Amino acid sequence: MYKLVIPMLILTLGFPAVSSGQELDRQQVILGLLGGEFDYKSREARMYGLELFEGMVGQLEQSVKAPTPSESDWVKSEVQKIGNLDTNAMVKALGDLNSNPIYIQRRIETFVSESEYIFSQIRSSESDLREAYWWVQLSQTMLRLQESEPWPQILVRAGKSYAPISRLSGTLSSVRDLPGKANLIALSILAERSN
């Protein structure tokens, strides 16, 4: 429960204030919830920020059931079929697929998997340029999830969600705010390099 509540609070209220050169610990990050700016210059602070992103993606993963292997295979075959259609039929088929709960589950599963890979790349980056690149990739991955406006309602109507609609909607809404923060971190790293 603690792992779910703290990231949600931090992402709702904003990143905590941490001044450059100040020694960090998790307690300081959590206590900084009520205001200030996030100091992107410190790699240590960025890694604590990364934990907040990880917590939000983990909350989304826990909110939605993963598709079964046969459901995942079905999604792959549908996508292949749609790829062979003419433009008009493709648009309709994509609309239908985008409102299918199994497809939604698969998209969220893919998002979680891509995000976890990017988190590991950010964490293991040995140069600031490489780290900035992966923060931008994280932002792009999260932007792709923003196409998910009706997903919570579809999943709940289909009985596929572990979470009540308000929790799932809140999670997707919080994730929607993250791409800008990830891009800001990347830009701050690059700005720091040029100084």
Quick take:
Residues 1-19 form the signal peptide. Keywords: Signal. By secondary structure, this protein is an all-alpha fold.
Describe this structure in words.
The chain is mainly alpha-helical and 195 residues long. It is built from 10 helices and no strands. The chain has helices at residues 2-13, 26-31, 43-63, 69-83, 87-98, 101-124, 128-145, 151-157, 165-176, 178-194. Residues 1-36 have low confidence and may be disordered. This is DUF2059 domain-containing protein.
Oligomer: single chain
User: What is the mean pLDDT?
Assistant: 74
Inertia-based shape: globular
Q: What structural category arises from helix and sheet content? A: mainly alpha
- Distance from first to last alpha carbon: 42 Å
Q: How many DSSP E strands? A: 0
Radius of gyration: 19 Å
Level of helix content? over 70%
Unreliably modeled segments = 1-36
Q: What is the overall number of helices? A: 10
Largest sheet: none
Give the percentage of residues in beta strands.
under 5%
Sketch the topology as an H/E string, one letter per element.
Answer: HHHHHHHHHH
Structure characteristics:
single chain, 195 residues, mainly alpha, globular, disordered N terminus, DUF2059 domain-containing protein, signal
